[in-house]
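Cross-posted from the bioinformatics board.
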Amino acid sequence: MPAYAGPIYIMSNLTFGIIKPDAVKKGVHGTIIQRVLDNGFKIRGMKLIHQTRRQAEGFYEVHKERPFFGELTEFMSSGPCVVMVLEKENAVKAWRDLMGATNPAEADEGTLRKEFASSIGENAVHGSDSEENAAIEIAYFFSKLELV
Ligand code: CMP
């Protein structure tokens, strides 16, 4: 979750998601997008980006004191990823439920991380952990004009 000083528009029906570089490299991003749609989410914004190291460090600033910060930001800037704004009732929880546990070894059957993640670092997808952070994370990657 990046530091963000601008206005925050909290919407309980929106969340932010990333299909991470490991999943895009494996070519499963299309399958993951289909699963998003099959689970009743509307896609309000979507783009393929390749983050710089600095952009990834900004996004994960909240984790900057963690021992895995270097590994995490190197990985997130290692290749293209898909950033998404997803709409559904109780979107934050609904997207976290579909993703599964951060560590794929603990992820439930039927979740995206169980199926597509290979480790706690290369775990296929990201999702906001609260409505407030969803608003901040959406604003980090999308302007208002990019949301439909
Ligand atoms: P994400 O939901 O993107 O939010 C922070 C990320 O840090 C998390 O998913 C994991 O991919 C990563 N992460 C958490 N713990 C570890 C760890 N012990 N080693 C490497 N990466 C981690």
